[in-house]
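Hi all, long-time lurker, first post. I run a small reading group and we've been trying to get comfortable going from sequence to structure in the token notation. Rather than ask abstract questions, I figured I'd post a concrete chain and ask someone more experienced to write out its structure so we can walk through it together at our next meeting. Sequence below, copied exactly:
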Amino acid sequence: MKDSLGKNPVQLSFDGSVGEYYSAELFWSPDSKKLAGTKVRAEIAHYIYFVESSPADQLQPKLQKRYYPKAGDALPISSLVLFDMESKIQIPVDARPFMNQFTLGNLEWRKDNRAFTFEFNQRGHQRYQVVEVDAATGNCDVLIDEKSKTFIDYSSKLSRHDVNDGKEIIWTSERDGWNHLYLYSGYGFLTGQITSGEWVVRDVIKVIDSSRQIIFTGSGRNMGEDPYLIHYYRVNFDGTELKELTPIQANHQAEFSTDYRFLTDIYSRVDLAPTFVLRDGVTGKILMIIEQSGVNDLTSMGWKMPEVFSAKGRDGTTDIWGMIYRPTSFDSTKKYPIIEYIYAGPHSSHVPKNFNASYKAYAVLAELGFIVVQIDGMGTSNRSKAFHDVCWRNLKDAGFPDRILWIKAAARKYAYMDTTRIGIFGESAGGQNSTGALLFHPDFYKAAVSSCGCHDNRMDKIWWNEQWMGYPVGPWYAENSNVTNAHLLKGNLMLLVGELDDNVDPASTIQLCDALIKANKDFELVMLPGMNHTGGGKYGERKRRDFFVKYLLDAKPPQWNEKE
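-- Answer (accepted) --
Happy to help. Here is the structure in token form:
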């Protein structure tokens, strides 16, 4: 520590070392009389390595590496430290209850200097705590103690707002089976549940302490509509006067004025062109229609609007939602192979909800003579906790039982959808899923293209995989692995991977190739020099189109080497 002039340094601690050091990230109390931070016990860092085969600036390859902890790897452990700057002494803080950590962070001082708070995410993501540390004594008081038998979705659902310097806390939780708002006292007592019901809070937009109101987004509250459509709401801290500000059946994207008295709202669906309006921010009343779009010019050129479709899932009661995309040359008297675009990452839901005149991932394939579909099956997010929990230690499920029933239901309604010719493709988590379709459901899916897939969750980034597959790494990791199950392959498979992929270790794809070769299975591999996490760019897209034309249309792709 130095004085305000940067002179007269004083040493505050004496027990730092190479393996256990004081973090440079420090947090001063508002009155500058206390200093909080962490002491870090270092881990053995895990790296992934790449050979860049074709660098632009030299002939010889280059070796690259990235810091990249994987599921099960050791992590740095942070212990809280607190210093009294007037007496130059360290105030002990008992770190023992918080050592089994994934993260310990978000340190923030109370404005009146009485304490600071931090958040503790226990390794395995089944416990998450908000803790207050007394600035005078160093005593820790757990204010919020969130627990789950499966996982806490800390990465996309948790939201916290401290009201009036921590006199109360607004908190989100799935403890009743749906993501909702809760009110705590500053002492950690649950005062009440603010929102409730079989629908979900999606995002907290603004907490207005003075009027004791919360502005937030939610979905699934309106019976009969797509439960993923986002609406905006206001509600009081005590749960009264819940007001929907955007009641039109559509997906809403709003921005509020600085005083939250007005909002602009663009609303649309994949089958409804956008409308742009100005609303009263308290009542939701439309004050002005700013702009309204139409689709006549598109449809006159043959454009086919996507169809929103729902069918019952594996339990016979839950509605599964998706969309159907048809070619501009669509002829209902013909039979069309089906291609599913899949991304079953549990961190969100993935079927588009906003209007877009060109869903390129769908349109390019549809124009070749396919019906293209996308579906959110069980195991993805933004529905009930039970819907989401299907993914727990079970990523190979990927919602396939629901997806298959959905496609069969669509084919019963539309006889031109040919369920004997079904392909599937995806990237990243979707790359894992699309290969899994041929391993675990080969009687339904016949051809798959998988780009930059995480084919074994032990090979991928730590946060994503431990979030859904748990910690410690148990036998279920192998049971869910495409590599372990490579011998089950039936149908036609193409794998694409960038040699410099630092999102998903490209070795995951190569290990799958190794397992397939050992099992004497046929497949195609496209290695993409110099590329990172990718579907392959123009070349990869062309390879994907040709692959499906060959195996689902039984047609011969163009001879590209003969073209100029």
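A couple of things your group might point at:
The longest helix spans residues 537-552.
Residues 1-144 form one domain.
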